[in-house]
Automatic annotation (TrEMBL):
It comes from the Bacteria. Pfam families: adh_short. InterPro entries: NAD(P)-bd_dom_sf (IPR036291), SDR_fam (IPR002347). This is SDR family NAD(P)-dependent oxidoreductase. The keyword Transport does not apply.
Length: 260
């Protein structure tokens, strides 16, 4: 059943009139998810600190004839709770709604044993990969709860391994965070669909940076891995919530049936 999600293709305009916020949308998996959501009708709010790359992704979406996205430059390492509440208010004012939250942004700076871990680096890693997601999610919850079909999806990655340090701790913390959020919002009166997806390694700049000995072309492209995220962000997922979907490493030449 899980493997079938990699082949999922939404119906035309399945995400029409949905507003979806995607973090880390300028490049890599976030870019692929943002473009795929837009392909099926969603209006994307692209949150990223890399403005030039985000602008390039914006141009690609507009030039493809998809709904015009919105850019929201923000560095999740230094953003405060107020910054996220300001973001939520801006979405309310400009978009009038928020139907989906795609937590994709991540940062892995180094592989280091815990006995040698720099405390300042630890704090930064926890901030970007865990605490910032908490701040963003709680700021957006009121908007999501106003949606007829709200969804939160987290791009997880199995990282409770030696030398993953703060990144591994943050990823595990986010899995627990999503479990708690799903349990607190599974009743019909306050329902929010909350799921995590781990599609295995993807051909991204962060992957290349942290695995310099690996041939990048031996890893699947992000565009081939977007289907499970689209499923859980859209109405086809129904009331499926609290799931942790994990896939193994996909072939380097993998293709998604929805790619044009």
């Amino acid at each position: 059943m899980q493997q079938d999600l990699l082949a999922y293709v939404p119906s035309e305009n399945a995400l029409k009139e949905r507003v979806i916020l995607v973090t880390g949308a300028a490049a890599g998996l976030g870019k692929a998810i943002a473009k795929a959501c837009a392909q099926y009708g969603a209006t994307i709010v692209m949150l990223d600190k890399e403005v030039r790359r985000a602008e390039a992704t914006y141009d690609e979406i507009v030039n493809a004839g998809y709904p015009e996205p919105a850019l929201y430059p923000l560095d999740m390492q230094g953003a405060t709770a107020k910054d996220y509440y300001d973001l939520a208010e801006t979405i309310r004012e400009k978009m009038g709604r928020l139907d989906g939250l795609m937590l994709n942004a991540a940062w892995l700076s180094t592989f280091t044993p815990l006995s040698h871990y720099d405390t300042e680096l630890w704090s930064k890693m926890i901030m970007v990969n865990l605490h910032a997601n908490f701040l963003l999610t709680t700021a957006c919850l009121p908007l999501l709860q106003e949606s007829a079909d709200p969804a939160l999806v987290y791009a997880s990655h199995e990282s409770n391994k030696a030398f993953y340090g703060a990144f591994g701790v943050a990823k595990a913390g986010m899995e627990a965070f999503c479990d708690i959020l799903a349990a607190e919002h599974e009743d019909p009166a306050h329902f929010i669909r909350v799921n995590t997806v781990d599609t295995g390694p993807a051909r991204t700049s962060m992957r290349t940076l942290n695995f310099p000995g690996e041939n990048p072309n031996s890893v699947a492209r992000p565009e081939a891995l977007v289907a499970p995220y689209l499923f859980f962000l859209g109405a086809d997922a129904g009331k499926r919530t609290g799931e942790h979907v994990v896939f193994g490493r996909q072939p380097a030449d993998a293709q998604w049936a929805g790619e044009m």
